[in-house]
Amino acid sequence: MNRRRLLALMVKEVLQIRRDLSSLYIAFVLPLVLLLLIGYGVSLDAKDIRLAVVLEQPTPKATSLVAAFRNSTFFTVTELRQRQLAEAGMVAGRYRGVVLLGNDFDALVGRGQQAAIQVLLDGTDANTARLTKGYVEGVWTKWLGHEARAAGQSLTLPISAETRVWFNPALESRHFLIPGLIAIIMTLTGTILTALVVAREWERGTMEALIATPVGRLELLVGKLAPYFVLGMGGMALSVLVGLVVYDVPLRGSVWVLALSSSLYMVAALSMGLLISTIARNQFVAGQVAIVAAFMPAFMLSGFVFEPSSMPLWVDLLSRVVAARYFVTILQTLFLAGDVWSVVWPNCLALTAIAAFFLALTWKRTRKSLE
Amino acid sequence: MTTAITLSGVGKRFGPTIAVDNISAALSAGRVTGLVGADGAGKTTLMRLMAGLLNPDDGSISVNGDIGYMPQRFGLYEDLTVSENLRLYAELRSLAPAEQPAIFARLLDFSGLDGFQTRLAGKLSGGMKQKLGLACALVATPSLLLLDEPSVGVDPVSRRQLWRMVHELAEQGVGVVWSTAYLDEAERCHEVLLLDQGRLLHVGPPAELTKRVEGRCFVIKGGADRRKVQLETSARPDVRDSLIQGASVRLVMEEGAPPPKVEGHEVSAVPPRFEDAFITLLERKAAIPTLPPRHRPAVPTDGIAVRATDLVRRFDDFVAVDQVSFAVKAGEIFGLLGPNGAGKSTTFRMLCGLLPVSSGIAEVGGRDLAHAAAQGRQNLGYMSQKFSLYPDLSVQQNLNFFSGIYGLAGKTQRQTIATMRDVFALDPYGGTNAGALPLGFKQRLALACAIMHGPDTLFLDEPTSGVDPLVRREFWTHINAMAAEGVSVLVTTHFLDEAEYCDRLGIIFAGKLIALGTPDEIKAQARSDAIPDPTLEDAFVALVEKAQTS
């Protein structure tokens, strides 16, 4: 490898990046937009669920239960007097759930045998319905305990479970989603960055002039990878920063492990893009292929939302060739748990293998001729 | 003289197509060698083989020294400046940094790009791009310089400068290979490799070839009868080639035939040209079938078929067509001549109503086609520069479709299609997909599709680009025949010699119409003591220089 030729190629690439800003947009603006869009848009938590509470007889007891619902951050409560209004509102989609406190509420609570409240749920979105049910039960149980203590008794439940959630004690699904999302975004930007550049040289005819010079394959490959590696890592740093600052995701692992694993992953993504570009020789095709081949598997099979181990065996096996799967695991571990070496090392090893595979294939497909 | 590159029995196939067929030649250093042939003759493939970008299937190539290569699309980075491009190629060729400033200064001076160092390559004109491409290929002073069609898209002035540069290089000992489809360029080379369908037709100095037809070339002063004279003479068995040249008809006689006699016309012997000789190397084809007679178009009251008045077309702040005005008389063949990018196609598209005008008036048959589209276009035939038929429909299906959309049906449609297949020799290809046709047949099919509905006005945008001289003659036979029937024909071309076939010409340069008149009138504008008998190119160069100084 000739250092001057390599340097000349990299300088050329940097100049092109500076003149044609599209690479900068892909590296910095695209991750930002996706992070904000998907980060705020996709959430597995339910907050501010629109709940109607029907209070047929506003007794002090009933009013205190309504206050308990109001105090919960999970609900936005509308207080009603007639159940018909609540039912009509649910049909119209104004409420996701309805809690009914009948005329006999005080009496029923006093007896403690029969169901004192009735809960109606909008089951069209099963996930939200399930969450709503859980939250309503939570408020109800808490209120009952409170009432009992106020009356000088203790509420006795047959079994009491004391739950502790590790790694994500606040059960913020965002803390779990953002690291995965960063991995997905890096897949997309890394692959697209390089998918377009070699194809562009073929389209504009510069590749023909380039390979007629003494430039070697290794110089071509490294000359393309290095500038976009820097660019991609810049995008990565920005995404991590947004995760930490905007979404308050904790980073419990060390920065150098994060940098190392990200570097490995970036090389894998960039090489995949280079391979696509080298084969397609056409920017439009390369862009399409990059999205389908990089983004889709990363989104579906990486464990970003859907856990591959709970998929059918063959899908699970398929997901093992997707680099994003390993990187998602690494990032989730680094952000939420810390430097857990038994998780980080094997996954880094897998990333290295995949990166090496793509590099080797690109190397093989990079020809110093037009055939 | 040292040999720069030796080809021995070189062959190259792409699938079933033989691109280069058993070529042997030795090219010398210090000479300009022309690689001459029509598109698809194998020029680019041979260039790439010599540059080492392709490996030959048969034979071998041995190179003596370094090669500089300029591909057809320059290989310039459009978003890099002139000096950044130069530096890139200097570094890639490991030029010592200390030597670079002197070499750059010399190359910039040589290419006339001094003062443009900081301009982006993408913002240069076609001619300047070509010169920069040449400079980039020259950074490491190669012993052999390969230039793939360097004169495409270059105006005649820049073209002359390029030739001067190349001859200077040859004097310094560089071997130059210049590939071209323009036959007139062959005469400027020391040596010529003449290619046709991958085969080598001739190797040697161009004069050697032209000498073969010495004494066989004549010019008949045709005047107003020139089309009739051309038609009659081309059918004679003792005439090998007959074509219109301005107001005259140029003949190449068969070997041993006596000078032609044409009643009532003055005949004089002329020195042969390279093209005359080239034609005699190609197999003589059977007589070209003629189009059947058609109804004569109604002549407009003012006799004008197409009129452009102060046409302007802007693309953002780029003025592609600038105040162009001309009128085409009914039954006239009017040529728009200019280098690629001069604004010919843009003018065409505005006249046809395909592109809105920025200002000015475009009229065909007295109508503005942008507004009176439907009725107007029925009387118009348009053959676009790019192949615009359906590549995955067969020849027959394309003919069916295009006759159908112009409203032909039933017996008329069947008869017209049969005539087209016959006249354009498409019969053997009826079931072939249009995309798989050889280039010449693609062009024939495109012309057939443009004229099937018997239009009164015909717009042909670079109809003969890329076809060999024989197909070109065939096209002009049909064009002449249609004009004789009263059809008005507008044709664009960047072949200067082809412009001679037109009744009148408009020369377009950088969006402006810089001359208008018959070929002979335009040539006369450049007559001087130094050039008593100017060619159209001499005239073009003189006109461009005049336009640039004023």
TrEMBL record, chain A:
Keyword Nucleotidyltransferase: no
Pfam families, sorted: ABC2_membrane_3
InterPro entries: ABC-2_transporter_component, ABC2_TM, ABC2_TM_bact-type
Name of this protein: ABC transporter permease
Main location per the UniProt record: membrane
Origin organism lineage: Bacteria, Pseudomonadati, Pseudomonadota, Alphaproteobacteria, Rhodospirillales
Source domain of life: Bacteria
Organism per entry: Magnetospirillum sulfuroxidans
Residue ranges crossing the lipid bilayer per the database entry: 21-42, 176-199, 225-247, 253-277, 284-306, 343-363
UniProtKB/TrEMBL annotation, chain B:
Matches recorded under PROSITE patterns: ABC_TRANSPORTER_1, ABC_TRANSPORTER_2
Pfam families attached to this UniProt entry: ABC_tran (PF00005)
Record-level Gene Ontology MF annotations: ATP binding
Name by which UniProt lists this protein: ABC transporter ATP-binding protein
Keyword Aminoacyl-tRNA synthetase on entry: no
Family annotation (SMART domains): AAA (SM00382)
Annotated keywords: ATP-binding, Nucleotide-binding
PANTHER family: ABC TRANSPORTER G FAMILY MEMBER 20 ISOFORM X1, ATP-BINDING CASSETTE, SUB-FAMILY H, MEMBER 1
Organism of this sequence: Magnetospirillum sulfuroxidans
Sequence ranges assigned to domain ABC transporter in this UniProt record: 5-222, 306-535
Top-level taxon in the UniProt lineage: Bacteria
